[in-house]
Structures are given as C-alpha cells and as structure tokens.
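Re: the request from the purification team.
They wanted to know what the chain is likely to look like in 3D before they choose a buffer screen. I agreed to run a prediction and write the result into the notebook, where they can find it.
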Amino acid sequence: MLRVATDWLGVYREQVNALNVYPVPDGDTGTNMHLTMQSVRRELDTCDETQMASVARAISYGALLGARGNSGVILSQLLKGFAEVVRERQAVDAGTLAAAFRAAQKAGYGAVMKPVEGTILTVARGVADGAEGPRDAETVDAVLEGALFGGQRLLDQTPEMLPALKQAGVIDSGGQGYLYIVQGMLAALRGDELPEAPEITGYAQEQFETEEFGYCTEFLMSEATKPIEEIRDLVSPFGDSLLVVGAEGYVKGHIHTNEPDELLATVGRYGKMLRTKVEDMSEQHTEILGMAGAVARAEEELPPSGLVAVANGYGLVKLFRSLGARIVSGGQTANPSVQDIVDAVRSVSAEKVLILPNNKNVLMAAEKAMELMEGRAVVVPTRTLGQGMGAALAFQQGTDAESLRAGMEAAAARVTTFEVTRASRTTNITTRDGRTLDIAEGDVIGLQDDELVQSGGTPEESVLEMLRRGYTDQEVITVFGGPQKTQGDLQALAERIGAEFPGAEVETHAGGPDLYDYLVTIE
C-alpha cells in the first residue's frame, strides 16, 4: 500500500507543488512529501516484510531520514504515529487501521509547537475522523473510503481557515498531498492503475510578490547528547516555522532563519551531523515562478543551452545557482535518482541541457538520464564539486551545448579538489606515492580529487598538509566550511593558508557539503 501510495503521490507531485502558498509560497511541498515517501520505500525494500516490527521501523526511520521541508517533517511524524500502532500487530484489520490514522493525527499535532488549522494537520484530523466514522462494512476498504471522505471534507474548508489560501484561491497543498497518499493506499488494495499526471496550468505562487523569506534550514543528527526538547530550545531563537522531532535514535530539525551557518554550527556541537539542507527561499520562489512561466514560453525561441548541477551544501548550491544552474539535491551518500535528474532537465527551458554530476557515484545516473532525454541533454563528466564549479564558471547560456562541452571539460580539469571528512571504518591503505596510512574509525581523512591521501590530525591540519603536497602556484584557493564550521573557524584557517601560501588569493564560504569539514579548491 505504501509503495503504491509513493507512486500515486509522484503522479500528482507537481500539482501539489503548484498549490503551495503556506507558510511561504516556496512551491516544493509535493516534491518534499514525495521524497519523504521515497525514503520510506527504500527502507521497506530492505526490511523483513514478514515481521510487522521491521516494517514499522522502516516506515518511521525511512520517513525521518528522508523528511524534506515543513511538509515532509510533519508527514514523517504522521507516519511515525501510524507505525507505532501497527508495530505490535501481525495483521492490520479495519479497527487497527482506523486507530493508526488517529495516532498519526495526534503525532502530527504533537510535533508542531503552534499548530495552525487549514494545513495538513487539519486534513489528518479529517482523515482520522472519517476512518473512525460510521461504516456499512467493517473492512479496510471501508476505512480508507471513510478516511478519504473525511479528509476531503476538511481539505475543502481550508481556504476559510487560512487567508493566504483564500487569497490564492487554492486548497492546502500539504493536505492534498496527504490525501493522495491515502488514495494510493486504497488503489493498492483495489489494484487500480496509476492515473495520468494532470496538466499544470498555473502556480499559486504567481499571485505573491517575491520577498526575502530567509533560509529554510534542515538538519539530521545522530548520537545526540541532549534531549530533543533541549535541542528545540536551542534552535527556537533562530527563527520560525520550527520543527524538531525524533525517531529511531535520530533528531530531525526544520526552521526558517536568517542565520543558517550559525544555527548549524550551534546544533552540531551536540551530536553527529549527518545531513543538512539550506534553501534561500526567495531564490527558490523565483525559480518556481520561472517554472510557472515555462508553458507561456513554449512558443518563444529557447536559449541554446541550460545547466543542471548535482550539489548539496547551501553555499555550494547558491554558487551553482548564481552561475545559471538548476539544482538536483544530492552528492556523497545521498545520490539522486535518474528520475530526479530527468525531472530537472525537463524543467529547464533550453534547446539542450548540460548536466554536471559532480560525483563519480552520480555519473552513471546522469548518463542514464541523458539517454532518456533522447538528445536534449549532454553530460560533462565532473567527478568532484570542485570540477563542477570549474565547469559551471565556463558555462554560457547563449552558446550551444555541444560547443560548450569541450571548454567546460577543460575548465573542470584545471581544478584540484581537496575534501576533509571522517573515516567510517578502521582500515589501512597505501597511497599512490607509496605511503601507508593506518586509519581508525572516526579519524580525520583528506581526499585529493576523490583519492585518499591523508589521515589524522585536525581538519585544519588536513587541509594544510594536502595543500603542501598539491599546491603548485595556482592563483586562487577557495575554502567551503562544512555545516559544523563557524565563520571564525573559516577566518582562522584562511589566515593560516595565507601565511603559508602568500602568492594565492584565499576565499572562504559557509555552506560546504554535508558530512565534510572542509571542501577546498585550487585553480
């Protein structure tokens, strides 16, 4: 049921995106909810399907792991509440299913500090009411039918509860997405075929002026040394739209703030930061409006080329966007799917689109996406984010893609990339120059162009040691600090680099990739 529900929501993903106006008109509610469900499905694919406890863990853990955006985090809590009820059962009957929907509603409301009616929470309440209401037959089908009826009844009322919805003339997007999930569950029982995706004729966001909304900031942390309530108190002063939740030993946070780097550095002191995401909501809003105008521009002459880049880390994402790229979120340990890349290519209004995979593990997916686009895309085989930045700097929208490709590949080849992260296991390796590195789990390790070349010491010492080996009078050294590094950390490292390499210009940026202390490029 949940697998089909994931695909069912996927059909309507862009329609849900087009509805979104609350809490800000950022336009990615459908995408975020679908990504959350995809994460659940991935966990279900590897769990023991003969044991309900294993299935329940896959639901709650997968949802929290993949939760994206305000809607995705709330959905993860709805699914967590649902999973808690079925966890102890070997079979789900009508009564259990109704109880699970009620537990889902309670978990959703409990996760939000200041619940607002007219949102997905309201629809979750309607679903639970409908699931428990009078039924002609005590069957699972009847529970789902009642849930859909009850949810739709309150969804239709959401414009009267939220002025922003009434102004835009739409129902709540998150609530609609939740109903599509319930629809998909019922379709799975009935064996219904997936419908065709509806045509999108307009976006609710078009009715709102672009504003400076701040940064939508998220983190996923393990091994937390403080209770969730204390972490929530730490995060609360940084902004609004706050959600800090937990499941299966992990803590997930979401907040809208103007200080994403300081927030992440603060939280990062109290656990192991596994994943972060920071979106500039004003830029995202502009991008959505660009997509909204795609139909209107269909008859216009298209530019010769467009750009898609795979990246994470808000500083890197902002840089790629400033160079004209549409972003696919992903990278090391979080590889995007072929479909993610295809969707991004299709959203770019250009005759042909250049794809920057920026990771050797993403290269194959990018090439498969290129094949599916049947001549409308071409891959520049960048294997690191540094190479991707070099290639993006050579991109020119007014030049055809085939003419650009050779120059972008050459620009990528001129960039050396250093990455500092932590070892995930104990091992020893022999480097290309014959050195033996004995590495313990958790040690600092340094990679040059994706090849392990250094271990031990502090992250800052790792950067300096790799520069001593790899710097050959290049003009610019650019340093991106990871999510746990402060501006003070970056400034101190820049001063040390400047003292040792006085011939180079040193630039620093917050918002480096997840799971890395530093990403450094020289060119």
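For the purification team: Confidence is low (pLDDT under 50) at residues 22-26, 205-213, 291-299.
Please add any questions underneath this entry.
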